[in-house]
Amino acid sequence: MSKALDPRRANEPRDFLAIEGLLDDDERAIKQTVRRFVEDRILSDIAGWYEAGVFPRELAKEMGSLGLLGMHLEGYGCAGTNAVSYGLACLELEAGDSGFRSFVSVQGSLAMFPIHAFGSDEQKQEWLPRMAAGEAIGCFGLTEPDSGSDPSSMRTVARKDGSDWVLNGTKMWITNGGIADVAVIWARTDEGIRGFVVPTQTPGFTANNIHAKASLRASVTSELALEDVRQPESAVLPGVVGLRGPLSCLNEARFGILFGAVGAARACYEAALDYSLSRQQFGKPIAGFQLVQRKLVEMMVSVNRSTLVALHLGRLKDAGRLTPAQVSFGKMDNVRQAVEVAREARNSLGANGITLEYPVIRHMTNLESVYTYEGTNEIHTLTLGQAITGLAAFR
User: Fold this and answer.
1) CB 162: neighbour CB atoms within 10 A?
2) What are the tens digits of pLDDT across the range 327-336?
3) 283: burial class by Cβ within 10 Å (0-12, 13-18, 19+)?
4) C-alpha closest to that of 246 among 173, 309, 196, 172
5) Among residues 79, 110, 132, which one ends one of the domains?
6) Is residue 305 part of a domain?
7) How far is 43 from 358, CA to CA, in rounded Å?
8) Residue-number span of the structural domain to which 155 is assigned
9) Strand partners, 219
10) Which of 163, 28, 155, 35 lies closest to 94, judged by CA?
11) Which of 10, 157, 161, 203 has the fewest CB atoms found within 10 Å of its own CB?
12) 196, 167 in Cβ contact below 8 A?
């Protein structure tokens, strides 16, 4: 362990509350392995990928070889780690860029998880080993152009035609859509909402990438169009009917996000700390001025507090006691804190804060998307409101 990360060192500015000392050896090893991967394979090129608006698909197999894809699932080539380890991996990935954490979240929690939890033995055997290895990429089709926070209003339908199903509809804002080999599509049926495991090469299935993005640029975001996409009965996820299916997947992904946002915040805080210690004005480092120290302290407190929230929720999940409302607590507040840290860090860097030479503006714009997706800040607020009052205010 490097001295900078030694939890026994008092008042370490990069781990002020010695939180790393709360991890066990396996968790710490996974965290450090992912951090090295980010340092070696992402940070040197991420500014270029972000500026070009591309995601390096070739890194999927490398992430698979590290056991990062579906890492919290058991069997089928998955690593079977605990929830805290999965969260820590998300934290380190998002310290690199939100696009990489999004890729891992979608692959493992939105595409692999429903197959693992609700799929047939045949579906699991066909897809999960290849997805765990990064040889096949998945996406998750729930959100639609006119159906975001209210998935019950989706218009995509699947109707029976003999022994087959025929799917028609449009899905929007789909991460990994344009590079996916398989899509988990949620559609209305006469039986209720069902999930379908759809190979993306199926006739009638089209993915149109969204290019004019100022956020999550190093991530593939797509529209999925399904026009008379014919699938056999074996494509249906047999283990779930209704919104419980997709909502349980979203809960898994939100868990990764509440850790991931801490990584983005940490990267911004550390960039501001390093910059303020080296930037000279009026004959001394700007870190020596009171207003700059106030900003640094606020950022440090937010990062440490959010890390503790994430770790506590991870321990609850590993104990089988984590509720969806508690996940909403973590997703809402940790992302909110990360957005504020990124803005303070951008300000601390002055004009340099808007260049891709530093990571802050990239994290700042990415976090605006993270603030909205997997449940907007408003929806999570209402979820918590219902949890503490017993009254639903969604409608």
Assistant:
1) 8
2) 999 999 999 9
3) exposed
4) 196
5) 132
6) yes
7) 11
8) 138-235
9) none
10) 35
11) 10
12) yes
pLDDT digits (tens, 9 = 90+) for 192-250: 999 999 999 999 999 999 999 999 999 999 999 999 999 999 999 999 999 999 999 99
Domain CATH code at residue 153: 2.40.110.10
How many structural domains comprise the chain?
Answer: 3
Which of 39, 74, 374, 378 is the catalytic position?
A: 374
Q: Is residue 280 part of a domain?
A: yes
> Which pair of structure tokens corresponds to residue 218?
């190093």
374: annotated active-site residue: yes
Other CB atoms within 10 Å distance of the CB of residue 61: 13
In order of 65, 134, 170, the CA distances from 68 in angstroms are 8, 9, 30
Domain-terminating residue out of 132, 159, 184: 132
Whether 14 shows a pLDDT value over 80: the answer reads yes
CB 174 within 8 A of CB 140: yes
Torsion-angle region of residue 75: left (phi > 0), alpha (psi -120 to 50) or beta? left
CA distance 122 to 62: 26
Burial class (CB in 10 A: 0-12, 13-18, 19+), 103: buried
User: Rounded CA gap, 7 and 25, in Å?
Assistant: 13
pLDDT over 90, % of the chain:
93
What is residue 10's predicted lDDT score, i.e. its pLDDT?
63
Q: Which of 96, 89, 84 is nearest to 43 (CA)?
A: 96
Tell me which amino acid residue 162 is: G
pTM of the model: 0.93
Tell me the C-alpha distance between 365 and 98, whole Å.
10
Query: Residue 150: inside a domain, yes or no?
Result: yes
Look at residue 9 in the predicted model and tell me its pLDDT.
55
